UniProtKB/TrEMBL annotation:
It comes from the Bacteria. The chain crosses the membrane at residues 30-49, 55-75, 87-108, 114-134, 139-157, 163-179. Keywords: Membrane, Transmembrane, Transmembrane helix. This is DUF4401 domain-containing protein. It comes from Roseateles paludis.
């Protein structure tokens, strides 16, 4: 029995679709662990915003960002998911994100400390939205959560915003678990 050109093309398309779904699921499993790790680091960063002297907050966030980036690269490499150029792209992207957010704070010179507290959540929501649109749709749900809790906290709980944002990291921890489960 021979296959027609259309049947062969349909079979190849099905194989491609299955391969893509498997890659996305593998990415969710790896990304879920990374999100869980970041949720703990972000909670620590937000609590640092509430407890540390203002001069130490930037140092604490920078240290947490460096630690998180290093751990993310380690976790991504652990399952042979990322190597070579892919690893450099992740490192360069993380570095660019750190510089970008820092530049916003330096250039905007915000007078409202709540803006500085909300900025990481807004930026992370944007990054997850891009990941959801271009690669893995589940990240759109996480992006929506991050953006919603940031805006609700900013508008409704400004006086306690660092605590609100730290508590909202529990939702990110659960989101990471949801991603890991595939």
């Amino acid at each position: 029995m021979s296959l027609s050109a259309q049947q062969a093309a349909a079979a190849l398309a099905q194989i491609d679709a299955t391969t893509h779904r498997a890659q996305v699921q593998r990415g969710y499993r790896g990304g879920g662990g990374i999100l869980m790790m970041w949720s703990v680091l972000w909670a620590l960063g937000y609590l640092g915003m509430a407890w540390l002297p203002p001069a130490m907050v930037s140092v604490a966030w920078f240290a947490l960002a460096i630690l998180g980036t290093g751990l993310s690269l380690h976790l991504a490499r652990g399952g042979s998911r990322v190597s070579g150029p892919g690893l450099w792209r992740l490192a360069a992207g993380a570095g660019f994100c750190m510089v970008f957010v820092t530049a916003i704070v330096v250039l905007a010179e915000p007078r409202d400390p709540a803006f500085v507290v909300a900025l990481p959540g807004l930026f992370v929501g944007l990054v997850y939205a891009a990941a959801g649109v271009f690669a893995a749709p589940r990240y759109l749900v996480i992006a929506g959560y991050v953006l919603a809790v940031t805006v609700v906290g900013f508008l409704g709980f400004r006086a306690a915003l660092p605590y609100w944002m730290a508590a909202s990291c529990l939702g990110l921890l659960l989101g990471g678990y949801w991603l890991r489960r595939g």
